[in-house]
Amino acid sequence: MGKIFRKNARCAAGVGLLAAGLAGLGCSKKAAPAPANPCNDPTPSTYAAVVAPIVAKNCLDCHGSSVYQTLGGGNDYSTYQSFTRLSAAYLMSSVRHDPGADAMPKGRAKLSDCDIARLQAWVDAGRPNN
Question: Boundaries of each Cytochrome c domain copy (predicted)?
């Protein structure tokens, strides 16, 4: 009986040391840093502060509420509700000028890499109305 008890005690101690060692490994790693905002921008990609100004500067000449029917293919992007009717995949492929996509803004230079990254961060966050 004594042999079995000692064997089980050693086994339990070994398991305990192993568990403590594994727990220590998990605690010794530093947490991964939070992802940086696009282009080191301290402002989170919110609709009101980041997305709406990009849309106003680059889209509303053709997709604004008074011109979208004649210049914007019937697509009004002047409000959050109307802009988010556009699929996220279509938006991003258009502003990136992906092959086969309708490159936007039409007839103008591609958005800056930072503006594209800001839009992508907003899309990745679920396109919140904030």
Answer: 46-127
